[in-house]
Amino acid sequence: MNQDRIKEKLTEKFxxxxxxxxxxxxxxxxxxxxxxxxxxxxxxRDEAELKFDFLSFVAGIDHYPAQPRFEVVxxxxxxxxxxxxxxxxxxxxxxxxxxSIQSVTEIWRTADWHERETxxxxxxxxxxxxxxxxxxxxxxxxxxxxxxxxPLEGTEEDTPDLPS
Amino acid sequence: xxxELNLRxxxxxxxxxxxxxxxxxxxxxxxxAVVELDGETVINIVPxxxxxxxxxxxxxxxxxxxxxxxxxxxxxxxxxSSNSLAYCLTVEKMLGVDVPERAQVIRxxxxxxxxxxxxLFWLGTHGHDIGAMTPLFYMLREREEIMNLFxxxxxxxxxxxxxxxxxxxxxxxxxFIEKLKTxxxxxxxxxxxxxxxxxxxxxxxxxxxxxxxxxxxxxxxxGVSGPMIRASGKAWDIRKSExxxxxxxxxxxxxxxxxxxxxxxxxxxxxxxxxxxRILKQAIKLLPDGPIRATVPGKIxxxxxxxxxxxxxxxxxxxxxxxxxxxxxxDCYQCIESPRxxxxxxxxxxxxxxxxxxxxxxxxxxxxxxxxxxCRGCLFADVIAILSSIDIVLAEVDx
Lengths: 164, 399
Description:
Chain A is α/β, with parallel strands linked by helices.
């Protein structure tokens, strides 16, 4: 099974109007709208031929100032087929509507800590996450460090405990 | 004398919360966990991370591609050369650079030495956590020899900073191969010596067999990789399934155990040290002559001799140090088999000379999630045994 077969199966099931295929340096990446992420992930894990049962990581990317601002990347691996693929979902950051996406913890339990880290670093809310506390950062911090508008050294108001 | 303590009426059962860490000799770094106990039995364990979080990923967005190599080594300081290998492979894939044969063999040598280095340290500290203090002193002997080898390559004993994008920074020093040969010749006997201390030790078996059970299904769901999943019965090693840096030319076995417990993880890691020694012996035989770095003007640093004699090389070197190399836009994920599991580097580039986003998929971070699953229902003393069997390095967990 190779990357083209993944494309075929996904297009067959979901249709090509919601999917966006890009090529990366080592394979393909599939872009889906954030509302469809849960359905696509269920299909990718449970479908007999694809069987993407291992989630390597969930990461966030901030494209400030471009819109849609955030992107959540899922790197999947199939233990049986020795295949890798990437799933991406772009999320908009609109005033009064904080960026949010469904959590995939019910599909791959390892997403738990990855999503907690992405949530605190970017300010993306993962809906239905079993334990949405901060993971690596101090509890008092309100800032989201990996956003592009957060300076490397921190700011006086947000991070007074960092050395200036 | 005093009134009788009416224990029966007052006897209540409460869940006791104990704080483990962050300053604790057995947590291998600054790791804090709150353990909920019912008597001696663990009900739940909640880890609190972030004590060693240094903002590695944010720092990388502000550094040139070549400046990131020493930073990656400090993520997992036990197997430093594995980290820089994962990073260099990712950038080389994006640049489309082919690493010359000699450099590939040298990199395999460094990676396997790092694996033995890391597993030896794990063996010593794991034994110490269980209560067997002798392996710790024995393994310091081999680690000293390996650190001397690292020092010969590029000067650093723990984090040599030897790998570069496109190859390695300089050729192997005089006497490196002879020293490595002496090391590999006697290492097998040393591993046998370590096994006599623990493998058939009744106390060790009692403390580790059946402890920390993690079934294969749970392991895959929790994203666990490396020796932990091999101890749960799955023969998955990225060096065999998705070979990189010439690993397809080496002949080695993947140690697999079906026990799913702490004892199986011990057996897997000890056998991995033997297999790494096997690979090292083959690498010494396979080492070809040739360049130690690829030649891509404008992207890869030219070799030192050229900088002294050729004008273009001097200019390229200057531009690379000042401006850095520009990597074409796109994203790439490359993973390797580090001593802890699947170590991956995901880089998103926008065409500039710093990564737009660098995500470090640290195996210790992901494997640590399985701690809560494995600890429920065991005794408190087993928590320490299970935690040490995961083999975490806090610098990697927190980045």
